[in-house]
Every structure is written in C-alpha cells, then in structure tokens.
Design brief:
The protein is of the alpha+beta class. It has a single domain, classed as Ribbon (Umud Fragment, subunit A). Helix content is about 25%, strand content about 30%. It has three helices and eight strands. Strands 1, 2, 3, 4, 5, 6, 7 and 8 form an eight-stranded antiparallel β-sheet that branches. β4 and β5 form a beta hairpin. The chain is globular, with a radius of gyration of 16 Å. About 25% of the residues are buried.
C-alpha cells in the first residue's frame, strides 16, 4: 500500500518551520518546503517546491540563495547573498526593494540546492550569473526597473 502524501511545510508557518528546518539541516539532511511570496520572483515563484541543503565547508558566497531566520520576525526567508564581508552577509530578495540587513553566519540555515515548479526540476544557474545578479540587485534602481519591465510584459501578454 502506498504511503499517504503529507503536505509540505510552508514558510508562511514561520517559527515552527525555522526550528524544524534547523533541526533537519543540522543532521546533514535536505529540507523541502513550498515557497510562498514573490520576493525572489522570477527565480523562485509562489508555490515552487524548494530544497534547502546544509551548508558545507565555509559560509555562502555572493550569488548563493540561502534560507535564513529573519532577525525582525524570527521567520524563515529565502533570499540571495548580495555581499559578503568576513563572515557577515548582506541578503536581499531579487524582487525586493530593500535588503534584509547584514546577518551573521548563525542566522543562515542552509543553501537552496533545488527548485521544482510544476513537478519539474528547475536549473539553479551558474555561479557567475548568480554573482552578477547579486551585484545588480544591490541597486534600488535596478530592482525598480526590473519590476516595471515585468509589469509591462505581463500587460502585453494579457492583451495578446
């Protein structure tokens, strides 16, 4: 008999997910959940299934997408490392206007290692491309321009 499927945890559940994710990753196992929100659009979309793996070796690099505990809310978020400086990390969502501030390694839970959309695995992209995107996303104006272009494209596709 098939094992019943259980719903994936959602980051909307916040605190319980943070503790559960930390416990699983500390055992060296990956953690899968259903992403909610648009702060990483289009890289990660609302409803995508994201797999976070434990960090191995040193800390994350510029361009990596990480799961972390947000200092203001205590909830889990997934954003890109846009700058590193001696064990401190500036994180920001690709589609967010503001950054999350500078965080220590202890706030970072793990590294995004896989994204599934519509049951199919999505490519994570090259390290060079991720680093370039991280550098660009530090700019408030780049993010605003990106959002405007995306809205314009959506309107055009709606009319077609």
């Amino acid at each position: 008999m098939d094992e019943p499927t259980r719903p994936l945890p959602s980051l909307g559940d916040n605190y319980p997910v943070a503790g559960l994710m930390r416990a699983v990753l500390e055992k060296g196992k990956p953690f899968r959940y259903e992403a909610r929100g648009t702060s990483m659009h289009p890289f990660i979309q609302d409803g995508d299934v994201v797999t976070v793996g434990p960090l191995t070796g040193g800390g994350p690099r510029t361009g990596d997408v990480v799961a972390f505990v947000h200092p203001a809310t205590g909830g889990v978020r997934v954003h890109r490392v846009v700058r590193t400086d001696h064990g401190r990390y500036l994180l920001k969502g690709d589609n967010a206007l503001g950054d999350d501030g500078v965080l220590g390694r202890d706030a970072i839970l793990g590294l995004v290692v896989r994204i599934e959309r519509g049951g199919r695995s999505r490519r994570l992209g090259s390290t060079l491309r991720s680093a370039a995107l991280a550098r660009l996303s530090r700019s408030f104006w780049f993010t605003r321009l990106f959002r405007r272009a995306r809205r314009t494209l959506a309107r055009r596709e709606g009319r077609a």
